[in-house]
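Operator note (shift B, R.M.): manual run for Lipoprotein requested after the automated queue skipped it. Running by hand, logging everything below so the morning shift can see what happened. Input copied straight from the record, untouched. If output looks odd, do not overwrite the archive copy; leave it for review.
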Amino acid sequence: MSRRAIASTALFALALSACTTTGVASNPIESRWVGRSAGEFFAKFSPPISDSDDGSATVYNWRGGYNRIKQQNGRTGSVSCSAKITVSESYIIRDITIVSDRPGANGPSYCTELLAAN
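Run finished. Output pasted below as returned.
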């Protein structure tokens, strides 16, 4: 094999390695809940409002965390969180996508404050 072919192969392999997932969650909510039981999530935060099944996973629409908080701007406001939660056939959370969020008491995301807290 020529040096040029080896270099091209190495560059291609490097480019592909940048595309693979590392298994590390991309946000604090996923870090806290992906890989855990959906039953644990729903018991802690309230049941889902609806679901759909695509054969390999179930996607739950969840809304909860209704609260009144004092926000960073000093005002008191009503907050809640909405998410789509993808669950495997064994009822393990595979993905959480936040659909609706508001500023929290300590930062820009009430959902993060609610769902990522220990």
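Quick read of the result: Confidence is low (pLDDT under 50) at residues 5-23. The longest strand covers residues 57-70.
Leaving this for review. - R.M.
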